[in-house]
Task: structure prediction
Amino acid sequence: MAVPTAVPDTSTKPPRTPWYRQLYAWVLIAIVAGIAVGLLWPSAAVNLEPLGTTFVAAIKMIITPIIFLTVVSGIAGAESLRRVGRIGLKSLLYFEAVSTVALILGLVVVNVFQPGAGVHAHPAKIAVSSTAATYIQQGQSQGWWHFLTDMVPSSIVGAFAEGNVLQVLFFAVLFGVAVQALGPVGRPIAEGVNLLSVAIFKVLRYVMFAAPVGAFGAMAFTIGKYGISTLTSLGKLMALFYGTSIFFVVVVLGTIAAANQINIFKLLRYLREELLVVLGTSSSESVLPQLMRKLENLGAPRRIVGLTVPTGYSFNLDGTSIYLTLAAMFVAQATDVHLSIGRQLGLLAVLLLTSKGAAGVTGSGFIVLAATLSTVGTIPVAGIMLIFGIDKFMSECRALTNVCGNSLASLLVARWEGVLDRDRVRRVLDGEVTAAPEPGPEVEPGPVISAALQPIES
Result:
C-alpha cells in the first residue's frame, strides 16, 4: 500500500528570499542580456549557440532516466493496476479533449483574421533551404499512424540513448506494471528505483545552476542569427499566434482551473522559473524534471505526476496544436488555396492524430506540419518555407503553452482521483509554504533503504 511522502510544512509565512538568490531572477537577467548581445553584436551572438545547446543537452541527459524512474515508482507504488489504468485513461481523455479545443481555437482564429490573405505566393517560386528540405522529406515519409509505430522501441537501450520520451514512457509503463504485479517479490526493485531517483534529482539540481548561462546563449543566438527584422515581415501571423496562445492559457485553461478552485495566475507565478527557462531555451524539455518536482511540492502525488507529465509531453501539446492549425491555414491562404468547411474539418481530423507525434525531435513542428500537408494533399508542402524564418520565435510560445497545459493537467487528474492536497495547493500558491519535499519513496521502504535514506534527508 502506498504511503505518501512526508512533506515538510510550516504554518507561518516563510521569510522572502532575496532576489539575487532566486533562479528566475538570474534567468530573466540572462534573457535580457542575450537579447541585447544579439541586437548589438549579432556575429558574436551567433557563436554563443553552444551555451544554449549544451545546457539543453545536459537536461536531456537526465530526462529519460527521470521519466523511467518516476513512472516505474508511481505504478509500483499504486494500490492496484486498476487504479493505474484509471489514472491513465482520465489523463488521455483530458489530453484529447483540451488539445482538440486548442486545434479548433486555432482554426477559428485563422479564419477570422486571415493572416495569409494577400500574400499570393506561388508554390513553384518558393525557395526551399536545405534544412527545411530535410524536414519536408521526413514529414512526407510519415503518415497519420506514424506516432503509433514510433511508440514501440526496437531496442530498450536505443530508446534511452536517443532520448525518445514516448518510447521510454512505453517501456516504463510495462516495467512498472511488471514490478507491481510481482507483489512482495518486486518490492526490492521498487525500493531501488526510489533510491536511484534521489541521486538523479540531485544531479538535476546541479545542472539547473547553469540555467542562466544556457538561457543567455540560446537567446543571444536566436536574436543574432534571425534578427528582429524577421519578426516584422510576418508580424501579423506572429501576433496572432501569441495572442491566441495567451487567450488559450488565460481564458480556456483559466476557466478549467477556476472550476477546480485553482487560480491560473498564481499557478503561472509559482512556475515562473520554469517558464523563464523555457522562454530562454525554446524547449519545454529543459524543465520537464524540475516541473515534476514543483508539481509534487504543490500537492500532487508522485504516482500522478510521474504518469501525467511525461504522457502529456507527447499527447497534450496545446501550443503545438494551435501552431499547426494556424500554420497550415496560413500556408493555404498565402498560396491561394481555398479550403471549404468540409476540407478544413478534414484537416482538423488529420491534425488530431499527427499532432500527437510533435514531441522530442528537433524541428518536430515542421516535420509534423509537412506530414499533415502531405496527408491532406491540397496544400503545397513547399509553402511551409513562408514561415521557416519565424519558426524559432514561435517555438518559444509553443513550448510555454505546452508547459502550462501539462502543469494544470497533472493537478486536475490528482484532484479527480481525490489525492490532491488542496490545502497545500492554496498555501503554496499564496506563498505561505515554500519548502519542497526531498525526492523519497512512495512505497513503504525496507530497512536497508530506510537506513540509506537517512543521511540524504537529514
Remarks:
- The chain has one domain: 19-457.
- The domain at 19-457 is CATH 1.10.3860.10 (Proton glutamate symport protein).
